[in-house]
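To: structure desk
From: M.T.
Subject: fold request, one chain
Message: Could you run this one when you get a chance? Sequence is below, nothing fancy, just the single chain.
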Amino acid sequence: MTAPSEAALRDIYPGTRGQIYFDSAAIGLVSQPVVEAVSAIVQDHCRLGIAANEAWRTEIAKTRVLVARLIGGAADRVAFSQNTSTAIALVINGLDWTEGDNVVLSEGEFPSNSYPWLALRRKGVEVRRVRMQNGRSAEKALVGAVDSRTRALAVSSVQYSSGYRYDLQFLGAECSRRNTLLVVDGTQSVGALNMRADEWGIDALCVSAHKWLNGPLGIGFAHFSEKAMNVLHPSVVGWMSVKEPFSFTYEPDLADDGRRFESGTEIVPGIAGLAATSSLVLEIGTEEVERIVLKRARSLEEICLQRGMSSFRSSYDEAHHSGILMVSCSDDATLHRNLIAANVRCSLRAYGVRLSPHYFNTSADIEQFEGVLSSLTLAA
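Reply: Done. Structure tokens follow.
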């Protein structure tokens, strides 16, 4: 299948008109195919009711396959969730914790990947937060905090505040050697950067679809390794957690696959939207999407540096670059306010102004951004 052209991509992303959208790290743009997929489910619900159920079952099964292809995993180990937090909760609540156990995470993790772990302290679980320097916790420091009582090491694939891209393959190998689960919040990378969940030894990959995946709000997924499937138990068992949910048996015969972690009626419109946006990424090609995203971020960085601004990631090796670019001047708040006023959509974070371009951005966006910056008075 031929990947969509740049012009075709602009056509199916109406949000690219009238604004320069560099804010995928906050919330992505929904494409027209996603809108149509979500609408089709709701329309069928309106017109057909229960008669649409068989088609919904097919859509859900198809989406598991697409998600597995997207992240380098297996369809039978995909469980749909509402968001990253609920996906991570499947891990936390699925383990049998003992007082004195511990979990390791970076001190700068996004709340979705820190608050759920911190809540374990009431069970006597130690939460070891590894110091973050220069926008990341060093991989060797994270691994160095692991001991025989560490049940999980939790990390984001990409740090939301700095754009640092963690070496997940290294972390996966080290966690495997120590018999510790590697739990990854993949929301800041999946849909923009290559992901190889099984190859890299990720035991639980937890993702929300509304950022770099450009999917609907309120849908996400978890993908589990075979090891995780064997050690985690469902914390909430419902009628959809079993092998044959429409048999309505009185004793639950739990599904052998990821469905055991799905308790009730699925968010079918969201799942259909997830299928549509995953298909689009796969059509373009995950490696091509990553190439475009990194190229766009690099172009923005060069422009900002030429204007006397600083780039937070300048000290990172390119292997640790992502689609997130943090730039700074003497007054980041004013810079952000002026960019928003000029219809450049971006975010203000602790390390400066965060720019996060995606594959739907074009060279014209970059040129327009350069023009906007040229019209502003900046001080480094």
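Reply (cont.): The CA atoms of residues 39 and 160 lie 31 Å apart. Let me know if you need anything else for the meeting.
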